[in-house]
Every structure is written in structure tokens, then in C-alpha cells.
Amino acid sequence: MSRVVAVDVGGTWFRVGSSCKDIGASTVQRVRSPSLLNNPGESVESLMATLLSMLDTAAPLGAEVSISLGAALDESTGTVYGSAPLWGDYTGAFPLREELRRRRPDVSWQVFNDLTCGLADFSARAGGQGARRIGYLTVSSGIAYRSADLTRREIEVDASGLQGEIGHTTAPPVQDPLLAGTPLPCDCGGHGHVASCASGPGMARMARALDLPCAERFPDGFTDELRERRHGARSLLREAVRPVAHVLRTIWQISPHTDVIGVGGGVAENLGTFYEQELTRQICEQRSYADRWLTPELISRRLRIARPGEADCLRGALLMAEGYLSVTK
Prior knowledge:
Elements: E1 4-9, E2 13-17, E3 29-32, H1 44-58, E4 64-69, E5 72-74, E6 79-82, H2 84-87, E7 94-95, H3 96-103, E8 108-113, H4 114-127, E9 133-139, E10 143-149, E11 154-156, H5 177-180, H6 194-198, H7 200-209, H8 222-227, H9 231-254, E12 258-264, H10 266-283, H11 296-302, E13 303-305, H12 313-321, E14 326-328
Parallel strand pairs: 1-4, 4-8, 9-12, 11-14, 12-13
Antiparallel strand pairs: 1-2, 2-3, 5-6, 6-7, 9-10
């Protein structure tokens, strides 16, 4: 029987593990990801070549490898369309699975979106009991969303294999006067996107625009400034959370059977209670008659801020390799 290896490739870290009991333990190997975020100025072609080499090295002879990749991709073909943290404004079609099969035909390769894997693990471990539909939103170096119909155990995607690329939709206008006239670029090459404000890199840029004391070492020191209730830090948190709250309010308006949504990723998990309280406050703002059901009591049952390790893409990659959820066009 071949060995199953899981690989999680994000904008910051490249992780390798081989069994659910090991994931999160010291046996998981972690190195810096071959991303534009970590290697500014390096060509996309060079980064892709490095990624192929690292995946090749991670795969033992004759193994089954399930990859969780932080990129927009078609999981039926393993073709990758883009990733702002990994490759900036790249908009091609990188045949990752085909290249891996050509390079290592002895290995069985599967490639999944990282949100697919995060959703699978969150559903299995934290949020899926009794839910009709479940969603998972990551707030990290990038922003994206996935949902699954648990009555059919399916993740529905479009003809290109995509669902939930909300990080590159237009964000609501910022309200802080110091940020109102500030350019808010997105790592994909656009401007004014949800990821421009809500992602880790976006928050770092806003911290510099607000001249926060922690700006040059962000995110280090940011939670201390929040704890001290410094105005600039509180303002940054409000502006970073605003587009995320807007997305979640919209999801619940158009998909009322989404019983549970988990929010994870480095930003949400590291800010913990600060993030959860601000997100709940903004979701529950009463703006019209349509919001009457948005109460803190109900949102506490439908919103889960994932704790570190609670929605792990490595474990999710192994679950997807086992067929825990299916992806259907």
C-alpha cells in the first residue's frame, strides 16, 4: 500500500505531513514557501520551478500526494489560474498536476484548493454536526471562501472549477479619514479589493498609512496596541474587519441555510478575541429591516473563529484524498 503524503503550500509556509495523528505535531516539516510574498522581485517562472522541485522532493517513491494549494485552481485538472501571495498578478493557466505527473510518474498526485482542505477539516473537527451547509473563510496572506452542501457532501464550483474567490471583489469604502485618500493596492495588481484591506499584507500597508508605532514590525506589537486601546490600532482593526463582515452578511442573506461559517487563517487566529468581537459587532449592525435577525446570540451559534490548528489544510488534504467531500461542477 502506498504512503499518503499531504503538502500545504501557502503564501508564507510550505508544510509536509503524512498522517492525521502527526499533523500539528513536531513531525510536520515546515519551510518558507517559494512565493512572491517571501521572495519579492523573483520571477514567477523561477518561483514555479522551485515549487515543482520542492513538491518532487517531498514525494517518496510510489507515494500518493495530496496537495493543498493557496491558489485559484480547477481541482478536476490541477490547473492553477493565479495566487496573489504566490505569484502576484499572474493570470495564466499553470498545469501543475500535469507537470508533476510528467516529472514524477511514479507518484499519484492530487491538487486541491487550500480552502477546500480547510473546509474539510473544519467540517470534520469543529463545525459540521447537524449543519445543512457549512462555510469556511480564510483571512491570511490572501482571502477566500468555500462552502459545502453537507446533505450531499458536495462543494459546488463553476465551469472553471472556482468558488468563493471573494478576496478580489470590491471592498466597501474605508471610513477612517486618514485612509480615505490612501491607495489600497491588492497583491493581485488591482486596487480596493477585500484583500487590499483585510489580508495580512493589506493590514501592514494600512498600519504604515496610519503611522502606527508597530507599523515597521507589523504584526508584532499590534495586539499590544489593541490591548492598550490605542485609537489608530482600533481604527485599523475596524477597517480590516469591515469587508469581511460585509461578505458574511451577504452570504447569510443569499444562502440562509449556511448554518455555520468558520473564519480562520493567520490574521483571524492570531488576533483571536479582538477579531471575533469586532467581526460580531459589525455583522450585527442594524441597517435595515432585513437585519433584524442578526443578533449576537444567533451569530454566536453560526460564526466560529477557528483557533490555531482547528482548521488545518494538511489534515484537510488527507481527508480530501479519502473522499470526505466531493467537488462538483
